[in-house]
Structure formats: structure tokens, C-alpha cells
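Let us practice reading a record.
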Amino acid sequence: MSASQAATRRRERVAVVGGGWAGLAAAVEAVEAGADVTLFEMAAQLGGRARTLALDGREVDNGQHILIGAYVETLDLMRRVGVDVESAMQRSALRLVDAHGRGLVLPDGPAWLAFARGVWRLRHWPAFERLRLLGTAVSWAARGFRCDESLTVEDLVAAVGPHARRELIDPLCVAALNTPSLQASAAVFLRVMKDALFSAPGSADLLLPRRLLGSMLPQPAGDWLAAHGATVRTGHRVNALERDGMAWRVTPAPGGTFDAVVLACSAREAARLAQPYAPRWAAAAQALRYEPIATVYVARPGIALPFPMITLDSNAVDAPAQFAFDLGALRGGEPGLFALVVSGAAGWLTRGAAALEMACAAQFDALVRRQTHTPAARAEAAPPPEASSRMLVEKRATFACTPALQRPPAEVTAGLWAAGDYVAGPYPATLEGAVRSGRAAARKLLGV
């Protein structure tokens, strides 16, 4: 970039509406390109659907998020705003294991070799199932990890055995797409599999946060923006956008006009603001359906899991959660605190929030009892008097990632762009998808 170009860009005024991970990514990218940035966030704190909040006097996250090594733009953004990624997250090879340690563990080495070795070591699977899964993966690669856009994940894996579906495909699908295999897009699932499991070494590594989400990006990014001259307005809802020639006014907001606006708020909020200027775009955004995620925080003093993250045997009858996280093991300062995650929680929530919370707590306590080996030990494993549980629900955690889904494009109209994990792109609703969309929107509107 030449000095004259940089000077020109410093005069460009950009409004970012929304302070989630997409909005923060867009704001940082625009500031680095020389723009004068104002970020508006309606909530009292930054972070959107991946933030820290207070619950019964304890700070918790509004959901348990994990990252993987393939989240290269998210990790780069964290480093840019001063986060020490190596100390902030516990990095390990991919481990999708239960409390007994059974499940897929990827060893070091080239991606394909690591996957083949990891699958072959699943000795509790019949040999023919392991071979069938490896052959299926080879067939995916031969087709460039592409398939008919109308297929579901259920269609895609019809030939693999029950162990592979129950212990690998279904957990990966619900974790990445937050949509059950019966309804999830096979095309998007294959893109995730390719980038996570079959690309560069380390792409599949698990990155489990050792800190609260607020300190992973929202707070450092907000501090970085303020230190670099941007204006960050929390607790400020944008009621409307108004055209002013080729510029935009944000209402209510003092300070004149903006050359461009990034709508980094929710799809529904973006549709409301964009509707007067791009009704077709707004209709596409409003048409998205959503899947909830429930996180149940269970306090069981004196209890620990064998691994920081384990898969759970879930079902539609009495075991809602698919994953459990030992926050005491991850953070060191909260022994006996666990997060149970229910992805694709819509069916369970029809029974009521209280029923879901109780079912998760009972599922966890049953897990603890199964880990003991004598009747006396099982009796001691009963929940102590100080045991407790609380649930948080993100009703619109992600869009329903279904086959042939038409997602709205990033460009809304001249000078107006959208950023969020829901805009058109190759990935499902993930932190990486949000960050990529935010950075891309800023680059395009500023021509960098």
C-alpha cells in the first residue's frame, strides 16, 4: 500500500454494527487498513454468541466453544490483538474419546496417515468397519470432497458401519454443524472434514480454552480497537440506517456520515436494517432457520473427569448431552465444575428447560457412578449436598445447516456489507466462519 493510498483510507469512515466475533474481526481489519472505525454493539459487552457473562455470582461462558488447528484466521486475529494463543488454549491431537478413553485419537504425522492409523487403532470396532470407513474416506477424496448439494450426512454415510456413525460421524456432525445427521448438509460436512482432518498437519488439533471466552477475543479486541483510535459503543442499538447521497447515517448516532457500513449483527437484525435498501437480501436472511445449543454447568465438588473433554452416549430418551468438559482440569481454578453441551437441542427444549437441565445433571451423575467399581464407591459417588446445576440456552446459536441452503451474500448493496457466520461461504456457523466473513467484508469494502 502506498503512502497516498494509506492516507486516503484513513479518511474513510466505517461503521460496524455488531460486536460479536465477526464484527470485531471486521473492525480490526478496517482499522489496520487505515479506516476510521466506529463499532456499535447493543449488548453491554462484546462477544455476541461467544461471550462471558455472570451466572449466580460466577463468571461463565454462554456456551462451551472449542477451536481446532484449522481455524487459522481466528488464531491469527487473536495474535494480532495481543492474545498469547499458546498459553490461552490447551492444544492436543484430536481426541474424540469417552470416559474410558475409547474413540478416535489422531497420532502425529501427515493427515491421511494419521487418520488411517487412528481409525485402525479402534480395536473395539470390527475390522471390516474400520476398512469400510477408510475406503469411504478415500472415495470422498477421489471426488474432491464434493457431493450432490441435496444430500444429507445420513445419505453420505449410509455405507459405513454403526460404530463409525455413532462414535465418529454423528459427534463430528453435531459439533461442527449443530444439525443432526438426518438433516445436516453433506456438502458442508465434507468441506469441514477436508479442512479439519485431511489437510495440513495440526489442522485437526483440539484447542480447548483455558480462559473464559471474554478474554480470548472480545476484551482484547475491544482494548486493541480503543488503543488504535477506533470508537467502541456498547449498549447502543442501531435503530435504522439512512442513505445520505453515497454515504450512510446510523440512527441514533452522533458524528455525521459513514462511507460504508458492515452489518455484523444477527441475521434477523441485519435483515431489519437492510430491508429498505435490499429487500431480496433481507428476505434471504430472514428465511434462515436456527438450531439451539444448551450448556448445562454442573458443579460436583471433588469430582474429576479422566480427560478435559469426553464424548457422551447421548439419546433422545434420557441422555441429551453429547460432550462434557472438565473446566477444573482446563482452567485449574474451578475444580468440580463441568460443562455439558447439548447441540441441536430443539427437540429436548420442547420438553421444557427444567426437564433438559435435570436430564443433563442425571446423565452426568450416572456417568460418574459408572466410573466406580464397587458398590461402596458408587454410593460415595452420589451427588454431594452442595452439588448444583444451571443451564444457559442460545436459542439461535447457529443456522440450521441443511442441504442446498441458500445463504445471503456478503454484499448487501453499494457501501453496505454483511458479516457473520450465516453469510454465503463454505463453512457452517463456527467462530472461524464468523471471523473469516468479518475480515473479508472489511477487505472488500475498503478495496484491500
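A brief commentary: The chain has three domains: 3-77+213-288+405-446, 94-204, 290-399.
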